[in-house]
Amino acid sequence: MTFDIAVKRIYEAPEKADGQRVLVDRIWPRGVSKEHAALALWMKEIAPSDDLRKWFGHKPELWTEFQKRYRAELDENEEAVARLRGLLRHGKVTLLYSAHDEAHNNAVALAGYLAGVH
Description:
Layout: E1 5-9, E2 20-23, H1 34-37, E3 41-42, H2 50-56, H3 63-76, H4 78-88, E4 93-97, H5 106-115
Helix pairs in contact: 3-5
């Protein structure tokens, strides 16, 4: 089954085309009100562990290893992954993140994991 997944910085304006907006960061983003976020859900439990997040530090040279380690965490986090897949069965989901790097962040890694891209 293919899912309609988008990835977007939470600082970008919400759009109707986003579908269900799900924040996938463990920490609430600075300067964003709950109203502006327009979330369907905040899934901090699906975010990388604090240890993994701190180890990665959004360093592009650690990206490949970060994805591998995060996938291993997701494999062990069956309940949260199943919950997110359940949302995806009902239509488009936009995974929201707060990192500055648009190519190397947990939402991009999570979208790849859900799409089966390794």
